[in-house]
């Protein structure tokens, strides 16, 4: 193909290739600059307490816990062979440049560092540096320490070990998800288009989007903290959106070409109609993700950064690069292969008129409009039943229990729960008294420690003045009392039974913050972390919901220019999202169907950040389909003489694409759900479920029924000429029969 248009297309492709190469080069090193965690906002009390402990005190909760257990002929950790090997482990760790402090049972003889059966002992390790440096050191040390060492079998856990393992799994799982998703997506696209060339174009758009997002994320790491989760989710989201946008543009281009339009005219019409919808659709996803930026949690903000970047690149590539490819490739884009042609010949032609012209989805929409009340009530009831489990959600945070059972972190955590008291050893509730002098105010500290030990859920308190249980002071146990003081003040270690991130520990943290103290206190530890994360999330959640709802409502209104229709779209989206949340609680909190998803640990809680995270992504994705549907409905309404015809024909011409687009997105998200990280598995399943529900049940049945019930109100507009893309000339269509057997009159003013 020659001519000025083709030269422009080649120029666009050359610039896109150069940009892709630059992004690939710059973004290749992004993984090395990403941080783990990001759950606890830096300004919270728990985060400040942890920083002060790590930087200002010689003894603090450890980053790593080595759980050693004797095996073979050795019966006790106190036997000479076991003790010699344990001391050798301590020596190796002590000489490592990243280790600040090591304490073990063989050094201290503290009973709390040895199991009751004397077959297991602990080594506690504090690392140098902040969270990112400690995690990097753990990633290097854990593989060296875990495994068999003479008569000792060693497993490693702790906060730094958990973060390092999550980083390792995230990188591995991202590669695996991409390897699984790409060929399956290509196969689905081949079935949709019947052309290998057309099937490869969305994948090319997806690659461009992901490369661009990776470069943006690396650029952001120079000015703010970005967590590792951003790359996994942005990659999956990029391919899913690239397929969505390309699918609708290619389908509209093929439709116009099949109607006899010239290639240039077909492309211009596709961009004016489907391209406009893609632009609005990308805006909905970006605005939905932007609502996550109101939260102070780094992990939510990072995923928003990655999602916004990949959505913008997917839309730009779809609206600029894809048209250039269509211009260069010409008619061969839609030319089916030999096997597809044979299959189509075997199927034979199908045609008709009136309702017979409609496909399955059009007939389904027509049936829904004939019994709108029954369909609306029935579908809503089903969605509310699916949403019901969310009413009993139990809030918590991810801990070592969500690691794969085969990992050393999970094995060590299981051993600690079986043989030790986790609250005592690695995850106590910490109470820091900055600038407090325990030597001058020993009596005040003693009285305060006694009060703390009397609180519900407290097993023991250790501080500079001794060890306390139920209001009684005993000689110091474990670490020396001097470890609880420094020029920066004093601190108390509050041992509690049960799981670290339990509601009992959260309630204890709240109690300790209100308990009278001899000086201002900072309460930290797992319970305080859960309380702070929950408080900060719930404080900003109304703003997130309001921002997402208002901006998406405004964008939908700008597209349709019909207030009732825009509000209906928002409410239907919220309903399908609630059903997805309920299903996630039923599966991941309660453990139903775990075997179908490859198995995963069930803790009986839902991570407090997961609903907000899935809302930010799924709300935009679901509105994505709504935007594309309403765009086509409004276009059909500009042609057809009545509302029922517009809805049915609009759905009929887009529903098949919705189904395939939702299916390809589900494949991409299912690949993400193969991750061994429960967080990624929840996101993958949650997004796939939300989109499948929305693209099938809600759009296929509920939307036509609700629009039929709304009647003329759905099509009312305060503007005299509602915006609609200019349609191509076509023959006049016979209106379809409405719900009551009569034609729906056009109701524009």
TrEMBL record:
Locations listed in the record: Cell membrane
Cellular component annotations (GO), alphabetically ordered: plasma membrane
Keywords assigned by UniProt, alphabetized: Cell membrane, Membrane, Transmembrane, Transmembrane helix
Membrane topology: Multi-pass membrane protein
SUPFAM superfamilies attached to this UniProt entry: Multidrug efflux transporter AcrB transmembrane domain
Disordered: region residues: 721-749
All copies of domain Membrane transport protein MMPL, residue ranges: 41-374, 476-718
Matching InterPro entries: MMPL_dom (IPR004869), Mycobact_MmpL (IPR050545)
Entry-linked Gene3D superfamilies: Multidrug efflux transporter AcrB transmembrane domain
Source organism, top-level taxon: Bacteria
Keyword check for Membrane: yes
Main location (coarse class): membrane
Parts of the chain that traverse the membrane: 186-211, 277-297, 303-326, 373-391, 540-559, 566-588, 608-630, 657-674, 680-702
Family classification: Belongs to the resistance-nodulation-cell division (RND) (TC 2.A.6) family. MmpL subfamily.
Name the record gives this protein: Putative conserved membrane protein, MmpL family
Organism: Streptomyces paromomycinus
UniProt lineage: Bacteria, Bacillati, Actinomycetota, Actinomycetes, Kitasatosporales
């Amino acid at each position: 193909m020659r001519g000025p248009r083709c030269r422009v297309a080649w120029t666009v492709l050359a610039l896109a290739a150069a940009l892709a190469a630059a992004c690939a080069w710059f973004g290749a090193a992004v993984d090395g600059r990403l941080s783990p965690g990001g759950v606890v906002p830096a300004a919270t009390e728990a985060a400040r307490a942890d920083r002060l402990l790590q930087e200002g005190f010689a003894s603090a909760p450890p980053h790593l816990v080595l759980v050693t257990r004797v095996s073979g002929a050795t019966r006790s950790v106190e036997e000479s062979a076991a003790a010699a090997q344990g001391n050798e482990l301590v020596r190796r760790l002590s000489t490592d440049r990243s280790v600040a402090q090591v304490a073990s049972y063989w050094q201290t003889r503290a009973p709390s560092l040895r199991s009751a059966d004397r077959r297991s002992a602990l080594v506690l390790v504090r690392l140098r540096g902040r969270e990112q440096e400690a995690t990097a050191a753990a990633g290097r040390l854990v593989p060296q320490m875990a495994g068999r060492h003479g008569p000792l079998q060693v497993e490693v856990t702790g906060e730094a070990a958990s973060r390092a393992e999550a980083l390792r799994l995230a990188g591995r799982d991202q590669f695996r998800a991409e390897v699984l998703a790409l060929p399956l997506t290509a196969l689905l696209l081949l079935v949709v288009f019947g052309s290998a060339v057309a099937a490869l174009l969305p994948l090319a758009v997806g690659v461009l989007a992901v490369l661009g997002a990776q470069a943006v994320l690396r650029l952001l790491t120079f000015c703010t903290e970005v967590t590792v989760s951003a790359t996994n989710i942005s990659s999956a989201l990029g391919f899913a959106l690239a397929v969505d946008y390309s699918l609708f543009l290619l389908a509209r281009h093929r439709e116009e070409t099949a109607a006899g339009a010239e290639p240039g005219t077909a492309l211009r019409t596709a961009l004016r109609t489907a391209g406009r919808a893609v632009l609005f659709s990308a805006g909905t996803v970006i605005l939905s993700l932007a609502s996550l930026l109101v939260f102070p949690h780094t992990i939510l903000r990072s995923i928003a950064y990655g999602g916004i970047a990949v959505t913008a690149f997917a839309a730009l590539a779809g609206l600029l690069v894809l048209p250039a490819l269509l211009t260069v490739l010409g008619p061969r884009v839609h030319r089916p292969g030999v096997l597809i042609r044979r299959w189509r010949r075997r199927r034979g032609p199908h045609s008709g008129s009136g309702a017979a012209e409609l496909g399955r989805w059009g007939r389904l929409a027509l049936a829904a409009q004939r019994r709108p009340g029954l369909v609306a009530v029935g579908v809503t009831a089903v969605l509310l039943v699916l949403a019901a489990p969310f009413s009993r959600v139990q809030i918590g945070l991810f801990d070592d229990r969500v690691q794969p059972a085969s990992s050393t972190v999970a094995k060590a955590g299981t051993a600690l729960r079986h043989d030790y008291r986790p609250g005592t050893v690695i995850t106590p509730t910490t109470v820091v008294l900055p600038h407090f002098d325990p030597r001058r105010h020993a009596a005040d500290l003693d009285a305060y420690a006694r009060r703390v030990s009397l609180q519900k859920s407290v097993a023991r308190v250790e501080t500079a003045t001794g060890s306390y249980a139920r209001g009684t002071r005993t000689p110091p146990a474990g670490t020396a009392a001097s470890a609880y003081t420094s020029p920066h003040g004093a601190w108390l270690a509050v041992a509690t039974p049960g799981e670290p991130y339990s509601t009992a520990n959260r309630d204890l943290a709240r109690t300790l913050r209100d308990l009278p103290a001899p000086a201002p206190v900072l309460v930290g530890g797992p319970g305080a972390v859960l309380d702070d994360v929950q408080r900060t999330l719930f404080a900003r959640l109304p703003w997130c919901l309001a921002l997402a709802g208002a901006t998406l409502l405004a964008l939908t209104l700008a597209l349709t220019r019909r207030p009732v229709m825009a509000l209906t779209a928002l409410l239907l989206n919220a309903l399908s999202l609630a059903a997805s949340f309920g299903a996630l609680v039923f599966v991941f909190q309660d453990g139903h169907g775990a075997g179908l998803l490859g198995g995963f640990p069930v803790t009986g809680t839902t991570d407090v950040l997961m609903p907000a995270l899935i809302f930010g992504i799924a709300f935009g994705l679901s509105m994505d389909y709504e935007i594309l549907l309403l765009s086509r409905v409004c276009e059909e309404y500009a042609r057809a003489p009545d509302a029922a015809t517009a809805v049915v024909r609009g759905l009929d011409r887009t529903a098949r694409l919705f189904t395939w687009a939702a299916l390809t997105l589900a494949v991409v998200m299912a690949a993400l759900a193969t991750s061994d990280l429960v967080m990624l598995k929840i996101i993958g399943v949650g997004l796939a479920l939300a989109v499948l529900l929305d693209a099938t049940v809600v759009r296929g049945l509920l939307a036509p029924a609700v629009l039929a019930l709304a009647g003329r109100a759905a099509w009312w507009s305060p503007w005299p000429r509602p915006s609609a893309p200019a349609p191509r000339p076509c023959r006049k269509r016979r209106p379809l029969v409405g719900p009551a057997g009569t034609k729906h009159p056009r109701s524009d003013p």
